[in-house]
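Narrative of accomplishments. A recurring question from our advisory board has been how the design workflow behaves on a single, concrete structure rather than in aggregate. To address it, we present the structure tokens for one chain from the evaluation set, followed by the sequence designed for it. No filtering or post-editing was applied between the two.
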């Protein structure tokens, strides 16, 4: 797992800024100690564009190219807490690799991480960031709404883009007792939702509102939304 390796060669000022970011996350109500530790350990400045590095520890979503964003630390921490509290270990699939930061956080928490990205440029960029930090995440380029059937079942699935509904192929790929964390709604506003599988039943819990970039694909929004 990459939790320790991400500290190698870290810059002292960045480490200080990262601890300040974690204090801010605590003040916003993030309290799970494992989640907070992961945020102390993972170097977000290595997942943002070079010109944004000085701002990497602000609680902001930043552009990463191709019209996409690295999610705000609070949002990543919120989703990760929902996952950790219901699924403390095991195999996790992330849909929407983006910068690779959320995947690195999941790795630091000790999960076996799989991630899918649909944009080739981001798939490659995230791969370079994760590889340079020695973070062992399995990556795939393609439509994540179809999942990764060869690796199923997953104990957890995290969708980091706005979904119109929980994609059926991903529900099929959840282990019995597994959970999916997914923002569900329209293109402007979504509610963070946890779907837990019990056999053939799926129970939904609904949490706070967020605004994510769209989940495109066969089980998401059409590529050219109206
Ligand atoms: N998790 C990312 C991070 O830590 O930087 C942020 C994700 S960004 C908010 C949403 C990502 O979902 C974008 O990179 C976008 O290209 C990707 N995406 C959208 N639809 C997708 C799909 N069907 N399959 C895989 N990735 C998708």
């Amino acid at each position: 797992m990459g939790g320790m390796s991400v500290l190698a060669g870290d810059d002292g000022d960045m480490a200080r800024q990262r601890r300040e970011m974690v204090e801010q996350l605590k003040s916003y109500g993030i309290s799970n100690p494992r989640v907070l530790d992961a945020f102390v350990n993972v170097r977000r400045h290595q997942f943002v564009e070079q010109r944004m590095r000085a701002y990497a520890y602000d609680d902001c979503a930043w552009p990463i190219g191709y019209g996409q964003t690295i999610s705000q630390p609070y949002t990543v921490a919120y989703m990760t807490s929902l996952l950790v509290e219901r699924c403390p270990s095991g195999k996790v699939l992330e849909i929407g690799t983006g910068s690779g930061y959320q995947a690195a956080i999941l790795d630091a928490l000790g999960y076996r991480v799989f991630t899918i990205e649909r944009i080739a440029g981001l798939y490659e960029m995230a791969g370079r960031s994760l590889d340079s930090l020695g973070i062992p995440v399995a990556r795939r380029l393609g439509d994540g709404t179809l999942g990764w059937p060869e690796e199923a079942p997953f104990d957890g699935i995290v969708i980091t883009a706005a979904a119109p509904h929980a994609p059926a192929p991903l529900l099929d790929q959840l282990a019995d007792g597994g959970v999916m964390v997914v923002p569900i709604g329209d293109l402007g506003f979504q509610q963070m939702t946890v779907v837990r599988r019990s056999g053939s039943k799926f129970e939904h819990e609904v949490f706070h509102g967020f605004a994510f970039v769209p989940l495109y694909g066969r089980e998401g929004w059409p590529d050219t939304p109206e």
